[in-house]
Write a structure and sequence with these properties.
Distance between the termini of chain A: 55 Å
Bound molecules: flavin mononucleotide, iron/sulfur cluster
CATH architecture of the largest domain in chain B: 3-Layer(aba) Sandwich
CATH superfamily of the largest domain in chain B: NADH-ubiquinone oxidoreductase 51kDa subunit
CATH class of the largest domain in chain B: Alpha Beta
Distance between the termini of chain B: 53 Å
Shape of chain A: elongated
Oligomer: heterodimer
CATH architecture of the largest domain in chain A: 3-Layer(aba) Sandwich
Strand order of the largest sheet of chain A: 10-9-15-14-13-11-12
CATH class of the largest domain in chain A: Alpha Beta
Shape of chain B: globular
Radius of gyration of chain A: 25 Å
Number of domains of chain B: 3
CATH topology of the largest domain in chain A: Rossmann fold
Helix content of chain A: 25-40%
CATH topology of the largest domain in chain B: Rossmann fold
Strand order of the largest sheet of chain B: 6-5-9-7-8
């Protein structure tokens, strides 16, 4: 203990790690001694950016070498080393390198002290004000297990963001202790000003706030106005199994056949042999298993362009930022008589919607995703939805009631129970059996 | 037998100006042990070395034959022989003489050792500052290839270090040889099981290996009879400091420290009074003037509470300030700690700071006890023996000369 602290700057009051620092914890547990060191401390570089996400304070480092080993053994990129000898030893980058690998943020988690901190989280909020909820990263088809760290107690800190950081949650079968940087820093949309917070109706050039009750009536009337063949639905693999199942029931009841969820991204995602999957959606497998891939999304758009489809219902996607020619998509959006958009954030596509339904983001609700391997994993609600946003399963449940007079589920778990009873792949699964670690779909499923 | 009359074995040729050449080595009976060894089965060679009581002369004093026998039986992959010619221990300069003046003795010893352990590739890791040694060894290796001693069953790579003391520690040396930072590795696995490049490796000191041809030529019993019950042979003592004739003296390991100082090195400079002696390189605990009637073998010095180490004998007389001497030693360890282990990394610098303060008259009363406490707590907790080598002087200098330290601390 004493050895670790003689050259340590003892700057806990301004250190982001304070409150979750093992040096601090062990000192309080086993130290609490009268210091004997009265000589000058060894000084080392401070506040050195190592890469886009990580910043180093070499004086706080206890030279445990975990970060070096992570870059050598896990990412095999080898950017970090320990340089110098004796008490002048310090962590640093090899000349000409930068800590910019796709998993660099993990070194912050494994650093036991405040030597490596997150540039994104630095000086935002003290960790003891945070609450944590178990969740699943929606960044790709792997579905890494994460914790969402929420700042509710100091709303004036961290620019008012509720989600202040994501941390990996250990799951040996999925992501071990790690997550990628894209996922780690991909939470910005949750508290972004572009969030949709109220049901909107666009009439002529005017956009009006409407109540959910009015909205459900408008959508139900809209759907009833068209024949099944005049309706096209582009679901999203960002929706949970529960959402997708209710949507499937709704379109099934209406007899709509033009339903798909696959929209290719403008830039195909990269993939590696570690965590990152090319499919940047958390639930493509679920959408496929639940049966939302009945048609072809591009054909649906073409039909809208040709006025054969009159009502186009788009979930979450920004079709105008997809791999498809912008003009083609625009013609489809302009061609449809009624465009319904349902999603968390406004985008170029939602600008063309006549009816906009605000959706809750994943930390604002419960649900499950099915990852590319067929593992069903639960994510939980960390805080209330922004404004009037509703989880997709909730709004779809209301629409089911409005259109088909069906009973409305009051909890996500209810939707899942119905899903497990209806779709063979999910047979035998329940929220309880999925637990914190996830559960594989029934064997023999596609 | 008076050790003073002991025959010179390793240093017998040092008088010849061309002693480093193949010609001189052959003329004085060189490469005659090799043909003998080639007729012996490896276990027989190991057995002879065991019976000779040859003990490692690099520092740890481990029985050489026993070390060789640790190579796993029936191992099929490569086995490496590594010669430790890093000679970094302060007060030690014997290997340098061997490397510069009799490199062929080393090569012949390596050929025999390699046969014993089943190695076909050997490395000589030479201290970076030893340029002349490196030249002579490289030239001798060239001659040995030309004459056909090397290249038929054994190849030798000469590698130069980059100037870190820790690269003399055998596992630090192996890391360095592998192209990594010279960080010692945790043992076990010992190098004989998993050493350089993951293969079984024997690391031996230059002088240790130079003895091997003579053991083969003249017999294990002869070699054993030169020393004490538990250590055979002669060894080369580097005597430095306040003596009339500093230098390297080869003599029986049964010699006493008093004999070495007064009979070999000509006594204390200017007939001054002896104050203290460091008998085995800077890592050995210090002995006072009354403690010099000890034999200089591994076990004799161990019984005296210090160690034979690298046989670097540093003589201090009344003109020398012990606190200053400790400050210099502490500075060395603070500078050379590799920094892997927390106690060693952090306390070597701290202890140096404290000794420096004491020497410049800014010591505090608690400093001495703090140094002793810190050193005692850290001892034995580190990856390599470097830190224990630093603790030896920290504790012994203060315990044996406490009054002198206290006189420098303001009341
Ligand atoms: C810090 C440290 C430095 C060492 N430096 C040397 C050295 O320079 N030369 C050497 O032969 N042995 C050195 N040793 C001893 C080696 O670790 C090892 O014991 C020796 O090379 C084995 O050879 P031997 O059995 O022939 O003595 C050192 C040990 C330590 C702990
Ligand atoms: S993980 Fe942190 S404490 Fe450990 S070596 Fe890296 S920077 Fe230092
Ligand atoms: S004891 Fe010192 S020199 Fe040896 S490995 Fe540990 S830090 Fe390095």
């Amino acid at each position: 203990m004493e050895f670790h602290l003689i050259n340590h700057p003892l700057d806990c009051p301004v250190c982001d790690q304070a409150g979750e620092c093992w040096l601090q914890i062990y000192y309080m547990k086993h130290g609490l001694y009268e210091p004997r060191m009265t000589d000058d401390k060894v000084h080392k570089p401070k506040a050195v950016p190592l890469g886009p996400h990580v910043i180093l304070d070499a004086e706080r480092c206890i030279l445990c070498s975990r970060c070096v080993r992570f870059c050598d053994e896990v990412t095999r990129t080898g950017e970090l080393g320990i340089f110098g000898r004796g008490d002048r030893s310090e962590i640093g980058l090899f000349p000409g390198t930068e800590l910019a690998n796709k998993y660099s943020g993990n070194v912050v988690d494994i650093c036991p002290v405040g030597a490596l901190t997150d540039r994104d989280f630095r000086f935002q909020v003290r960790v003891w004000y945070l609450e944590s909820q178990k969740s699943i990263c929606p960044g790709c088809a792997r579905g890494c297990n994460i914790e969402v760290h929420v700042n509710r107690r100091r709303p004036h800190h961290a620019q008012g963001r509720r989600v202040v950081r994501l941390k990996p949650r250990f799951n040996d079968a999925v992501n071990k202790w790690w997550i990628c940087d894209e996922g780690r820093y991909g939470y910005g949309f949750v508290d972004d000003p572009s969030r949709l917070t109220a049901p909107l109706r666009r009439v002529g050039g005017k956009t009006l706030d409407v109540s959910w009750t009015e909205m459900f009536t408008l959508v139900a009337d809209g759907l009833r106005r068209y024949t099944a063949d005049e309706i096209g639905v582009i679901a999203s693999p960002k929706m949970s199994n529960e959402d997708l199942f209710l949507l499937e029931r709704l379109v099934d009841g209406l007899g709509v056949r033009a339903v798909d969820y696959r929209v290719p991204p403008a830039q195909p995602g990269d993939q590696d042999d570690f965590l990152i999957r090319a499919d940047r959606n958390p639930n493509s497998r679920g959408a496929e298993l639940i049966g939302l891939g009945r048609s072809d999304a591009r054909a649906i758009l073409n039909a809208a362009r040709d006025r054969r489809i009159k009502c186009l219902w788009v979930f979450h996607h920004d079709l105008l930022a997809s791999a498809w020619p912008e003009g083609e998509v625009l013609d489809a959006l302009l061609g449809a008589e009624t465009v319904i958009f349902q999603g968390t954030n406004a985008n170029a596509t939602s600008a063309h919607a006549h009816l906009t339904l605000p959706a809750a983001a994943y930390p604002e609700r419960e649900g499950t995703y099915t990852n590319f391997e067929g593992r069903v994993q639960r994510f939980r609600q960390a805080f209330e939805p922004l404004g009037q946003a509703l989880a997709d399963w909730e709004s779809l449940g209301c629409l089911l009631q409005a259109v088909q007079g069906a009973g409305r589920p009051s909890r996500a778990e209810e939707c899942f129970r119905a899903l497990a009873a209806a779709v063979p792949a999910y047979a035998g699964l329940s929220y309880r059996s999925i637990g914190d670690g996830g559960q594989m779909i029934a064997t023999g499923s596609p | 037998m008076s050790p003073a009359a002991t025959e010179k074995i390793l240093t017998r040729n040092f008088g010849r100006p061309d002693s480093h050449t193949l010609k001189a080595y052959l003329e004085t009976g060189g490469y005659t042990a090799l043909p003998k060894a080639l007729t012996m089965e490896p276990p027989a060679i190991i057995d002879a070395v065991k019976r000779s009581n040859l003990r490692g002369l690099g520092g740890a004093g481990f029985p050489t034959g026993t070390k060789w026998s640790f190579i796993p039986k029936g191992h099929t992959g490569p086995v490496y022989l590594v010669i430790n010619a890093d000679e970094g221990e302060p007060g030690t300069f014997k290997d340098r003489y061997l490397l510069e003046r009799d490199p062929h003795a080393l090569i012949e010893g390596m050929l025999i050792a390699a046969r014993a352990i089943g190695s076909t590739l050997a490395f000589v890791y030479i201290r970076g500052e030893y340029v002349e040694s490196w030249r002579h060894v490289s030239a001798a290796v060239g001659e040995a290839y030309e004459a056909g001693y090397l290249g038929r069953g054994l190849d030798v790579v000469v590698h130069r270090g980059a100037g870190a003391y820790i690269c003399g520690e055998e596992t630090g040396l192996i890391s360095s040889l592998e192209g990594k930072k010279g960080w010692p590795k945790l043992k076990p696995p010992f190098p004989a099981i998993k050493g350089a490049f993951g293969a079984p490796t024997i690391v031996n000191n230059v002088e240790t290996i130079c003895h091997v041809p003579h053991i083969i030529n003249r017999g294990a019993e002869w070699f054993a009879s030169l020393g004490t019950k538990t250590q055979g042979g002669t060894r080369m003592y580097s005597v430095s400091g306040r003596v009339t004739r500093p230098g390297v003296y080869e003599t029986s390991v049964a010699v006493t420290l008093r004999q070495l100082i007064y009979e070999y090195a000509g006594g204390v400079t200017g007939n001054g009074r002896l104050k203290a002696v460091v008998p085995g390189g800077s890592s050995a605990a210090i002995l006072t003037a009354d403690e010099i009637d000890v034999t200089m073998d591994v076990d004799g010095l161990k019984a005296a509470g210090t160690m034979a180490g690298s046989a670097g004998v540093i003589v201090l007389d009344e003109t020398v300030s012990i606190p200053e001497a400790l400050m210099v030693v502490a500075r060395f360890y603070a500078h050379e700690s590799c920094g892997q282990c927390t106690p060693c990394r952090e306390s070597t610098g701290w202890i140096y700071e404290m000794t420096r303060r004491i020497v410049v008259g800014r010591g505090r009363k608690a400093d001495l006890d703090t140094i002793l406490d810190v050193a005692r707590r850290g001892a034995g907790t580190t990856i390599c023996a470097f830190y224990d080598g630093a603790v030896g002087p920290y504790i012994s200098y203060i315990e044996k000369f406490r009054a002198e330290f206290e006189s420098l601390i303001p009341k």
